[in-house]
């Protein structure tokens, strides 16, 4: 999988490429990140990429010329390498809420582009001309799109074949069946007076599976009842 990232701060993505599961996947060539810095595409002196908003107001807005040029460079590079041009995704508060289903969808693409905004946002004409979809992590505002892009990438990369040591790990993640994950336990058997549930020590795999399913349902009902509403909607169109 190839992901082109339009960002002013490509060095931030070392958190993905250098550490943990995603770092190992990068070293094994399971995915490639290609960066396009809008400062390399600006027609203005001093590598300027922002300007005051029309109509007044606080802060600065990212100009359309460098962003559009960087996005088009990403598209051209994807087509040259793969013969395929993936969607352009803008990380923004007004976007659709990112879900596990979106991660699965993105993991199927040979390539896609993530656009990371900064300042007060980006010129709307960039969205109108170049963006295929907008994604959001939730109802809050970050200083820029880089952290959101890294979350999207982390969730997507771990679904790629061969990234996790055991493919079953991904299949048992939270949200895979529309539920939260069940509780997990490891050694020691007793810790500060709390014991591992006896069913997990029984060796009865059928009973263990039933217990885990019941725990997942109970945890979802307690912590995220809205997910159960979504399941009802799925079965009652």
TrEMBL record:
GO terms for biological process: tRNA N1-guanine methylation. Keywords: Cytoplasm, Methyltransferase, S-adenosyl-L-methionine, Transferase, tRNA processing. Its main location: cytoplasm. Its EC number is 2.1.1.228. This is tRNA (guanine-N(1)-)-methyltransferase. The keyword S-adenosyl-L-methionine applies. It comes from Hydrogenophilus thermoluteolus. The gene is trmM. Residues 1-229 form the tRNA methyltransferase TRMD/TRM10-type domain. It is found in: Cytoplasm.
